[in-house]
Amino acid sequence: MALLVIVFLPILLAWVPRLTERFGRNFNLIVTLIPPLIAVGLAFSFLPSVLQGQTQEVILPWLPSMGLNLEFRIDALSLMFALLILCIGLFVVWYARFYLSEKDSLGKLYTLLLMFMTAMLGIVLSNNVLLLFVFWELTSITSFLLIGYWQDNSDARKGARMALAVTGGGGLALLAGVILLGEIAGSYTLTDIFAMHEVIIAHELYPVMLVLILLGAFTKSAQFPFHFWLPHAMAAPTPVSAYLHSATMVKAGIFLLARLHPAIAGTDLWVLIVTSTGLITMVFAAAMAMFKHDLKGLLAYSTVSHLGLITLLFGISTEVAVLAGIFHILNHAAFKATLFMSAGIVDHETGTRDLRVLQGMYKFMPITGILSILAGAAMAGVPLFNGFLSKEMMLKSVLHVPQFGSFGWLLPVIATFAALFSVYYSTRFVLNVFFTGEAKKTPKPPHEPPKLMLLPMFIMVAICVVVGIAPHLADAFVNTVGSAVLGYAQEPYHIAIWHGFNAPLLMSVIALVGGLLLYTQKGKLLAWYKKRKPFNELHIFEGTVTRIMSEFTQLVTRVENGSLQRYFAIAIVMLVAMIVYALLPISSLSGSVAITELDIVAAVASVVLIIAAFGTVLIHHNRFGGLLILSVAGLMVSILFARFSAPDLAMTQLSVEVVTIILLMLALYFLPQQTPNESSQKRVWRDASISGLAGIGIGVLAYGILTRPIDSISNFYLENAKPEGGGYNVVNVILVDFRGFDTFGEIIVLAIAGLGIATLLRNLYLPLPLTDKEGRPWDPVRHPPLLSMMARMILPLALMVSVFIFLRGHNAPGGGFIAGLITSIALILQYVASGVGFIRERIQFNYPNWIAAGVLIAAITGVGSWFLGYPFLTSTYTYIEWPIVGKFEISSALPFDLGVYLTVVATTLLILAYIGKLTTTARVDD
Amino acid sequence: MEILIAIVIAVLTGTGLYLILRSRTFPVVMGLTLLTYAVNLFLFTMGRIQYNSPPVVNASDTYTDPLPQALVLTAIVIGFAMTAFVVVLALRARADLGNDHVDGKDSVDDVKEANR
Fold it and tell me: What is the C-alpha to C-alpha distance for residues B53 and A146, in angstroms, rounded to an integer?
């Protein structure tokens, strides 16, 4: 349970900072600190048991059928990362309070940071690879939002987009990879996957799976050649850079390597790919960092380089290498976050991050200077700092990597060079900013930041120094985490400062001395770099994106020319093609079932229907005439329903027909009365032939099915309608009971259509025709008295009929849909006969509210069965004695049907009344 | 009867699609209505044709398939809502674009271009 709280508490409280912004920045800071503080407390409570090598798991089903569950697990590795995420998170939240200027929204940053925290904690605590992927994507999205925090800055937007494209693309590869992994291992649960190590690495798909997963890890952790997004992500506010792009998110890829290490490592392929990627990244990025003039750019490349170092170590996979990797994750987080904060302070207090402008700042900000010197020394790997220890272990690890065969000597050489570069840029960072002569003029007069802002840096530098001097303090923890990564309990390794005179020490010395010597040649180096052709990944990336976009835009405009008719024609031709393809293998059109004998009523209705359909097409240019003939077709359809044993359908079709025709009449009032003859003869033939073919195809299909035997699930409904649903009318029982959830969805569709129409009609002004199409003015008597009198007399009768139809619906043809339509027609008749104004004086319905009421009643009925311990919309029924009526069945499906009824009435009336109002001066919006 | 019903469905589909391919909104709406009839009849007859056997328990000796009926019943009502939506969209287009062409184009050139 505590695990769930750790993961989800930050995101559950993420809304708080954003909404409490008006209470001031300090209040904002406090409410944001609360969730991570609670989570840190809970995480520490796991420490004793985890140090003894125990793990704890929690599982909640989510989509068990797909192997996706809310499974969390805490072991030493996840606890280490969780603490890293939470502690650095706390520091960053604290620091951001001072960093962000008054005009930027602190609440927004905090909300995003808390959301990010949950995503990150989810990755490290997941015990299910699919769940891990879900959180993985969440980090990509929150990172996108955080990089683009200053959304009016073009660089921030582009950087955010690039980061999302690269890490999101890698995420897709990862998804494919983990699915393969899960299928190979037979389970998506990590604990199970660990046990399948032998099966996994022996599987024929192992190389594919490995490459896909590594693609995910390498894009996230900015490994060469995917490193380019990270420097551009530095457009984010510095606290975000310190947190996401140095201490946590970019380490998610590394975490994945460590997490899956027991399952997928241990092959030559793993060692070769991971080690060489790490090695190239380490040296390439370190070299790039040497030439950056932007403080954050320097730190970004240095981060890439250190990530490469850790990747390299996990690639080598020996015990020492793995321990070194784990140790370096912690060390790097401590000194790099400090340096980012220092860069942020320099930027904040001087207004620039340009190393060509900055120098001699020590005089103005001595405390920041000292903290940066210490953290810089740790980054350079100076003895008595934590960075030295993990660097020594790294140098020791690269000395012997048998998988590289005769090229093994390359590793220590390249690693030494990378370390040398690292010394160079660390020196440059510290000396260039704080010393090297007198300060130049900066955009803002430099001064020391508020003391409280420095607090997190103090703590982290203290860690760097204490661990550097007394490394045995970290022994137990690093060794326990090491067992989790290696997958077995290894011989405990003792981290020590002094290992005697050996190769690693020599390499360290070469790096330190060489780096300092190189620094003395700084001017020449920079001059050489300046002569090179400038190279900006962002421009290349954006250029590629723009080119792809424009090519596809051209393609789209060619295919999609904006003609609805063409789209329809293509769709219909495809339909014909698909029917033909499906029917080709069938040898005989007729099936084995005998033809039903001809029924005279149905036959006449069919013939009239055919004539009406053709008639509609033939005279459709005269719209009014076409509409009248169309209504004949609708009536014939309802007669067919009635003859073919579907009384419910016949009643529904009949009443819908009435409202449809009224609706179309109303609409026609505002539209031209004639359709112009604008189609060419060729086009008419073309359309007639493709629609004719489609019609024949569908007809053949229908005939083919109708003459073949039926195998239906309907017997279940027929048998259970009375005992289970309490009704004799099976159609209605299906609607309100067996398939009640479908019906619920359908009335929601109805409601949405109604509300959509109301929105479309808002502020709609159409010219009202003053005459009919022959130019005759309208009759001054708009509402004939005879009609309105009749209509008023019919109203109560019609309402009574609809109540009757509604109540009997469960046992005889009828029900909410039909009753609703009858009520609507009765009320619409009043509108037609007496006008909108007349109705408005007497009844005032707010139709949208009634629609909502209908849907709500149906929903509440459905939810009601939860309280009785049954699934949504389970119905029950009983009998009560009514006076006069006698024994009457009352069913819980009845209120549901009432909801249906109300929705139908309100939607139908809304549609017609709102369009009707357009014909008067009383518009919808007033 | 099956042959006749298949012809009915074929004719309704064909005429409906032909009208849908017209260039003005109102014929398209009429075409949609015809097509709705066709689709509803098609779905309904998937339960096969039977006379005098409504699916009301105890009302007759044999029962026809109630399931397609339940499906079609809601389809009819939703079909109405969708028709209404398209009609109102057509009204809105007429008000905002000044014509009732399905692509919102009215001039002869535009139509010629669309026919190309």
Answer: 66
Percentage of chain A beyond pLDDT 70 is 98
Residue A548, pLDDT above cutoff 70? yes
Chain B residues with beta carbon closer than 8 angstroms to that of A695: 10-15, 17
Mean of pLDDT over chain A: 88
For residues A816-845, average pLDDT: 87
Give per-residue pLDDT as tens, B56-86.
888 788 888 888 999 999 899 889 999 999 9
Domain housing B76: 2-115
Comparing A712-721, A771-780, B7-16, which segment has the lowest mean pLDDT? A771-780
Probe site for chain B from A731, A741, A851 (most B CB atoms < 10 A):
A731
Q: Which of A730, A743, A755 has the highest number of chain B CBs within 10 A, making it the mutation to test binding with B?
A: A730
Cβ atoms A293, A312 nearer than 8 A: no
Q: Look-up: residue for tokens 């017209």?
A: B22
User: How far is Cα B7 from Cα A352, in angstroms, rounded to an integer?
Assistant: 80
Radius of gyration of chain A (CA): 38
Total domains in the fold of chain B: 1
CA distances from A208 to A177, A211, A718 (A): 8, 5, 53
User: Across the A/B interface, how many CB contacts are shorter than 8 Å?
Assistant: 321
A717-776 residues touching B, CB cutoff 8 A: 717-718, 721-722, 728-731, 734-735, 739, 742-743, 746, 749-750, 753-754, 756-757, 760-761, 764-766
Contacts of A177 (CB under 8 A, 6+ apart): A209, A210, A211, A212, A213, A214, A215, A216
| 8 Å CB contact of A703 and B59 | no
Comparison of pLDDT for A778 and A178, the residue scoring more = A178
CA dihedral B51, B55, B56, B58 (to 10 degrees): 70
Tell me which chain A residues have a C-beta less than 8 angstroms from the C-beta of B10. Answer: 695-696, 698-700, 702
| Contacts (Cβ under 8 Å, ≥6 apart) of B112 | none
- In eight-state DSSP terms, residue A429 is I
pLDDT at A923: 46
* Paired strand residues for A120: none
Query: Measured between alpha carbons, how far is A897 from A562 in angstroms, rounded to an integer?
Result: 43
Q: pLDDT per residue over A298-350, tens digit each?
A: 999 999 999 999 999 999 989 989 999 999 999 999 999 999 999 989 888 88
Res A544 pLDDT > 60: yes
Query: What's the confidence (pLDDT) of residue A315?
Result: 92
Question: Is B53 an 8 Å CB contact of chain A?
Answer: yes
What is the CATH number for B18?
1.10.287.3510
A689-698: per-residue pLDDT in tens? 999 999 999 9
CA proximity to A752, closest of A590, A907, A900: A907
* Cβ contacts of B29 on chain A, cutoff 8 Å: 664, 667
Which amino acid appears at position A500 of this protein? G
Q: Which of B76, B78, B82, B101 to mutate to test the interface with A (most CBs of A within 10 A)?
A: B76
- The answer to whether A564 contacts B103, with C-beta atoms less than 8 Å apart, is yes
Residue A106 near residue A25, CB atoms below 8 Å:
yes
Contacts of B37 in chain A (CB under 8 A): 633-634, 637
Q: Tell me if A812 and B59 make a contact (CB, 8 A cut-off).
A: yes
Min Cα separation B32/chain A (Å): 11
Please check whether residue B110 touches A, CB under 8 A. no
Structure tokens at A128: 């299910």
pLDDT digits (tens, 9 = 90+) for A40-76: 999 999 999 988 888 889 999 888 888 888 999 999 9
Q: How far is A547 from chain B (nearest CA, A)?
A: 28
B94–A670: do the CB atoms touch at under 8 Å? yes
What number is the average pLDDT over the span A165-181? 94
Tokens at A288, concatenated: 């790039």
